[in-house]
Structure formats: C-alpha cells, structure tokens
Amino acid sequence: MTQELIDLRNSTLQGRYIDALALINELQGMSKQAILGNIQSYLKILLIHLIKNKIEEELTNSWSASIRNSMREIKK
Q: What domain range includes position 54?
C-alpha cells in the first residue's frame, strides 16, 4: 500500500486528478478487503471456541475471553 500512497501523492501534486481518484478507489477496495479478512478471522476463532464449548460442555477462562474478544472485534 505504500507505493499506492506515493503514487497518489505524486498524481495529486502533478495535477493528475483522474489518476489520483483511481488510486483512491483502489485503496478503498484494499481497505474493505482487509476489514472483511479481519472479520473472517475473528469469526473462525469464535466458531472454533463455541464448537469446543458445545462438545466439551465446559468453558475455560481463556476460551471465554477469546469469545468476548472476537465478538468485540467483529462489532467494531
């Protein structure tokens, strides 16, 4: 993403606003993908701990903390 920011700065300074807008759109897409990737990771962790809890019928402190953390991060 660093190169994209450099290109965006250069495009803006050089008055190439169409190029700058295209780079902004690309950066927005990258940002959305990163957000979705984070949500997916936390959902996996959450589901694993919930399945373990259901199977073992026991909830350890660490699993409980992980479940709370995952839910908090997903809500963000």
A: 2-75
